[in-house]
């Protein structure tokens, strides 16, 4: 503190230009006087609500991509050279333009109805009766012999029937390549019996008979009332109003699917399943393999979802058993691969469902591609009937999806502000890879969605894709 008693400002040590005196003039005053506007002038300056909406719509349209092309950008030459031949045939090097007729041509469309990829196959069938309830699949194959020309192991030729509610083991069916091969197996069994050498499975003499696909399907799907099996193909009978219990309601029931999981979760309450813990998994494999997925007009979204949930739950339970080492003989990695393969090859499951299966079992990208899975499969959230066409190049699939995404974004952005905000708020809870495709299909929710047939879902999705691509090409 200075001792002179005077409090003075410190010296100004700020740099200044040499030779120029410092100025202490105050800064200029701010002009805070704003011009006044009368009420009449305000009304003339502000646009009307109709004019404002029109100007906003015009501004949005100016910021949107032009609707003259399906491509979203002009690809460089090296990008075009890296395209597949299929995509090169659809696009040109400059803009990627394509005529609407070519884009909608069935040979170029990269999407197909998933369930329709299944085809009925009438193989030869034999039935094994009086088998021990703990019979294993390998024992059945060994009983018939490797030279009996049964179907390849990867096609799951052995079907040991299990009552899904009680888990009781019934008869076993084995599929052969041809009917003649099945007849030769039965003839060999008959000759052994006539020569005094009855064939046994374990400690039981087994009854081997020539059977049919109709008998196999009837035993695999016992709750399918109102159905006459013509080989592997079902014929739905007319509705009988006075006999509702005999009318067709589905090939499987939700109770059957739930009980398959319960037999594994609570084995001490299922004495038959406790003795052969692999039986529920093998029953699921047979159900997925032989299910008549091609009858899309008779299968609901809810029924398929019940089968998928059962598949997912059983896979998780099997993985848990493998980690704990519950039964290394019957519950092994081979069984896990069989269940996962049946699920990934199931024509009724969607791309997203198969992506969940692949994630549960830890399947790598290369193996997923071998099952026909596209890239970004987890983003196929609103495709309940369509899947990528087999052997279609992935860049063609993604090119179509890009066109759908860009056009649906244009459609939504062109809507009035209120509608657009509602849609955009809903979009926060889903994936944007397909754009606003879900707005175009406009699926119902709740029971109406669960009761929708797969055939109707395919029709809705194909119609939506064609309408979107038509608008993207400048045609309607």
From TrEMBL:
Gene3D superfamilies: 3.30.70.330
Any one GO molecular function term: nucleic acid binding
Protein name: RNA recognition, RNP-1
Region (Disordered): 1-31
Cross-referenced InterPro entries: Nucleotide-bd_a/b_plait_sf, RBD_domain_sf
UniProt lineage: Eukaryota, Fungi, Dikarya, Ascomycota, Pezizomycotina
Organism of origin: Akanthomyces muscarius
